[in-house]
């Protein structure tokens, strides 16, 4: 499946279920394996949660925008908020060890960076951050076939 799917929703956690459903439908059409589908869904939900909480500061009047771009063998997801932004370079350089329960911030970046093939942050003109997640997709074996490692 090639194409683009765009959704926009108010900064309210109740809409994360919709994001998860849309993400599932997009990924299902790409013929990727269950592990990849889960990694994509977890990363997209994490990016949206960050956009709601840290970007838009839980303000339901501010929207979160997601763009799913399906390309042959690859999925690109952009998540945008309208917040003041944060020092993402510092987080990317010093991603905390997720087993350190005392370190409360940065786990989402760790998750996205480890589950996706590429993670980029970009400050938008005016206000906002755009997070770009990329996943190179493995082809699923045909029905009844087996994948070789």
General description of the model:
This protein has helices at residues 16-28, 34-55, 88-93, 107-115, and strands at 3-10, 63-71, 74-80, 118-123, 129-136. By secondary structure, it is α+β, with helices and mostly antiparallel strands. The chain has a single domain (3-136), classed as Heat Shock Protein 90, CATH 3.30.565.10. A 5-stranded antiparallel sheet has the order 1-2-3-5-4, covered by helices on one side. Strand 2 and strand 3 form a beta hairpin. The radius of gyration is 16 Å and the shape is globular.
Secondary structure elements and their pairing?
Elements: E1 3-10, H1 16-28, H2 34-55, E2 63-71, E3 74-80, H3 88-93, H4 107-115, E4 118-123, E5 129-136
Antiparallel strand pairs: 1-2, 2-3, 3-5, 4-5
Helix pairs in contact: 1-2, 2-4
């Amino acid at each position: 499946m090639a194409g683009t799917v765009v959704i926009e929703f108010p900064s309210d956690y109740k809409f994360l279920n919709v994001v998860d459903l849309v993400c599932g439908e997009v990924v299902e059409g790409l013929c990727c394996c269950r592990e990849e589908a889960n990694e994509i869904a977890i990363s997209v939900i994490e990016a949206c949660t960050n956009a709601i909480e840290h970007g838009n500061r839980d303000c339901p009047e501010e929207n979160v925008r997601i763009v799913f771009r399906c390309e042959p063998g690859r999925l690109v997801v952009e998540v945008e908020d309208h917040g003041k932004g944060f020092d993402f370079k510092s987080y990317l350089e010093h991603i905390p060890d997720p087993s350190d329960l005392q370190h409360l911030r940065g786990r989402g970046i760790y998750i996205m960076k480890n589950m996706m093939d590429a993670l980029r942050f970009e400050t938008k003109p005016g206000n906002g951050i755009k997070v770009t997640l990329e996943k190179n997709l493995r082809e699923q074996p045909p029905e009844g076939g087996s994948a070789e490692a």
